[in-house]
Amino acid sequence: MPDAQHLPGWIIRLIETPEEMDAVHDLQRLVWPGSETDVIPAHALLAVVHNGGLLLGAFVQDRLVGAAWGFPGFYPTPDGPRLKHCSHMLGVHPQWRDSGLGFALKRAQWQMVRNQGLDLITWTYDPLLSRNAHLNITKLGAVCNTYRRSEYGDMQDSLNVGLPSDRFQVDWWLNTPRVERRLSRRQRPVLTLNHFLAADVSLCAAVPDPAGGSRPPGHGPSLNSRLLLVEIPVDFLALKEADLGLGCDWRFYAREAFETAFAAGYLVTEFVFDKTGERPRSFYLLTHGESSLDT
Description:
This protein has 295 residues and is an alpha+beta fold. It is 28% helix and 31% strand. It has 8 helices and 14 strands.
């Protein structure tokens, strides 16, 4: 990939100098406010960048509005450890959320990591965040069968404080038809909730709350179908802020549901955001027994 990639409204390029790190620090504070100790220091960012890692910045008129940072790691194979890229940070300025900037940063990362000769990028995210799930699973084509309990211990920033830092670890297989199709410029057909309900699917639906929110399903996933639909809150951060106890209920429900499904051979292959009913709803689709990298 060229050193700078021009995209509508912004320019994405590598960040490699100490002089630019103040802007990276400021961006971290905006995206994850409330805990100065969780800001990744300049010396760590630079050490990674100077030793095979990548720090990509998105700039609008020389102002940093987004960044993606990662480093080389390993994953196991039958033939021994193999190199991958660990993407650890993706941050977008609040004024630029829902603009497509996160997708553009990940697409640039995809190009650069492939040019390094690697075929896999992994990262973690909170499985209860619908916006992140839509980007990671639907738009980018990552898949997931790994649930990590309290991955980062007790976190104190405002997005994570008060809950165990449980995470999905997603696998982004860079050279698969699935990923290449989702990153292409051609429009993909949008599959609705009704499309999946028409199939042989096991449904774990949330319980509507009279106050307008939602409570976890009263049961775990049934493992008798090839497909599972597991509902999560549309806006978990707002739900958690309004009722931390309910946020904890969702955290522990999701932990049990996904750990059970993954242990039985299911894989997250799709995310469905449905707006056809009386209220918007969010679901993970899990598929049994195959990687679904060609879909």
